[in-house]
Amino acid sequence: MKTKFITPIAAISVSLFAMSCGQQASTEKVVTGNAAEKAYVAPGEHDEFYAFMSGGYSGQITAYGLPSGRLLKEIPVFSMYPENGYGYSEETKPMFNTSYGHVPWDDSHHIELSQTDGEFDGRWLFVNGNNTPRIARVDLSTFETVEILEIPDVAGLHCAPFITENSEYLVSGTRFSVPIPQKDVPIETYKENFSGLINYVSVDPEHGHMELAFQIEMPGFNYDLARNGKGKSHGWSFLTTYNSEQAHSLLEVNASQKDKDLMAIINWKKAEEYLAEGKFTERETSYYHNLMDEETGIVSSKEMKKTKILNPADCPDMVYFIPVPKSPHGCDVDPTGEYIVGNGKLSADMSVYSYTKIMKAIEEKNFDGEIDGIPVINYEAGLHGILEKPGLGPLHTEFDGRGNAYTTFFISSEVVKWDVETKEILDRQPTFYSPGHLVIPGGETKKPDGKYLVAMNKITKDRYLPTGPELAHSAQLFDISGEKMELILDFPTKGEPHYAQAISADKVKPNAVKFYDIAQNKHPYATLGERKSRVEREGNEVHVYMTAIRSHLAPDNIEGVKVGDKVYFHLTNLEQDWDVPHGFAVQGATNAELLVMPGQTRTLLWEPNRVGVFAFYCTDFCSALHQEMSGYVRVSPKDSDVELKWGLNEALRNNQEAANKFYEKQKQEREGLASSNK
Amino acid sequence: MQKSKAPRVWMSIAILSLIGVFFFPLWQITLDAAQFPEGLRMDIWINKISGSSKNIIQNVNILNHYIGMQYIEPDSIKELKYFPYVNIGLIVLGVLAFIINKKWSYLFWVILVAILGALGIYDFYLWLYDYGHNLDPMAPIKIPGMTYMPPLLGEKDLLNFYVTSYPAIGGILLGVATISGAFAFLSYKKPKRKYY
Fold first, then answer.
1. How far apart are CA A174 and CA A130, in angstroms?
2. ipTM
3. How many CB pairs under 8 A join A and B?
4. Does A652 contact chain B (CB < 8 Å)?
């Protein structure tokens, strides 16, 4: 028993040693031919694919272009983002509400793009927050986070949010088992008191809205990763588990003892039937659902209090287990839906299962006992075959649609290409260093675009110019269109990308919103027209209805604000052209700035704590006279009788009147149009 | 001798062309600059101004205000209100000329169209002149001696913009109408088979 877990550790030290001497030479060896040409996208040209990478401990998502490796945007998701005011503006603050209160950070792991008929449809992107269990939805027309749903009673939502082939569900399992419901028990009572939940979050096909449909209560293991069936295996979910030892301390040793852990196999169509029959127990709990309104851009937050739990012991034929060699991590289903790859990360071999054989074994009840009422399918009966000695530390597998699989090996630091049907190893290429996930555009769908592969490495060391002890992570792009994989590009990434998904740009680009139509702006504090800009006082709250257009803010002189007031700057960007954001910053603000897109309204709260005259200005270099786009707000003592007053420079008034007339007219026209359209 | 059908055929083309003026812009002014890769295009119709986006007027006005040009306000341009009636009038008179089918009726009509067309272009020139020269003395950007009149016909550098101004389909149709009217008049005396 002992030698079994010593072997990988010996392997780690051997590979680390190998890394330290002479990897430079092998980099030179692997970069051959016209690599630069293959990754080259000429200035002004667009990439062929978008790659969306999770940010890990940054809590965000980054969008890159492939094959150039250009960083296109960081999309803030689970972490507040002073760069554009996300999480700081009054509109977006509620996005961070959870049953634990306002949680301004998370650990984002797995990107899942919405699918229709087993292919990416380019509508939404889902990503999990690991630490405070949450799932977020990003709208791919605006590249903005529009919804976050908390998942109750789980711990470390790692096994999420894996999508089904028509985006019916996001399958999301708990990484850590915990007492459910939470209670004060000794940790050593793990085996009696701890269990895990697999959550099925439904997605509304029209708007993408998420809802926790049901939870399945499972034995207290660690649920790690999952994939859903496709084609013939649609309706089933496959989830890897580790720590079937049920250790609660020193897991690196105690959870690595068994020769085999388990893969959970869930028939979710059956679960739907049980749900419809009412075979669930309803439980009181607390979790938050935060949703951005499309017309106002305001996030509303709602506490949910009930969940529906299905127990496999009461629901036969819904859940099965099948053994997987030693501590599996990835669990990947090939494009045909027939083969399921279970990567035992401490195993010397990889197990490939056959959906048809699993179904046959279930039919024939070829079981080796059961765990908590869940039948355990005979290992050999479900097995398609074993990929022998492919490398060390297999983690994740993606597919190219030509019958090949590509698996990352963390310990031996390489990507291995193999034939799924014949289990024959076709090629192996080193990565620098120690890859975690990998991504092929569409690599988890029915129709992969098997042109490129990106390996996301966990160790960077000497790959780039040094930046002190803390380094960017490193991604490596391979051309996989030929027989051998060819390394063509290295690029640093933000945070720690775990999983990524890549999609043909043609599916996303045509839907990209250039600016928000101001006629559709239904924000209650919107200022639709400069003439409507004003300041209102309600007790100690001051509301500034401010507009921005090149190159002035209106009003730009405000007096009558007092120490202790809560001043809300509601800034509406009146521009209606592409790429003309305006920003807003005011001295003494203890939160952040606002970056307001054309047609949008955003609100910053400012609580002046001293007397004086304070400057505010536009933070985005919007135009030739951007430096002039500024103003003053006068703050008087609490008991002062300075009247509330606001305005724009007198000398400019005539021009402003013309402008106002114009905008008013435009507005009326649009309203006229809107009402005639009704 | 049977009357030639040619004048009526030409007149029909002229009338249809004038009807077409309601469906196509008369003139097109484009502004090109590096930071507007998608271009700024204004389409001047007989009754409205449109362009490369539905917000084209606002976007051009924002740019223009830096150099003190007046705001373009289609509602205050009265020509856009009465030109459609003038065109309808010409169409009605054209139909009358067609019915009368006399040499004088075609001549009268073509002279009227030519005069009104020339006046229209002159009026357009005056508008362009006014926009380009009547500048706000408070403008943030003032360049001594610089005026910003777009070309009536042709291309010109105006600060960072390269401005192009040419007739669009509607303008061409107006030309076709005038020429067809002239042919209606000219073909009247011609022998039938030459034009038939």
1. 9
2. 0.86
3. 40
4. yes
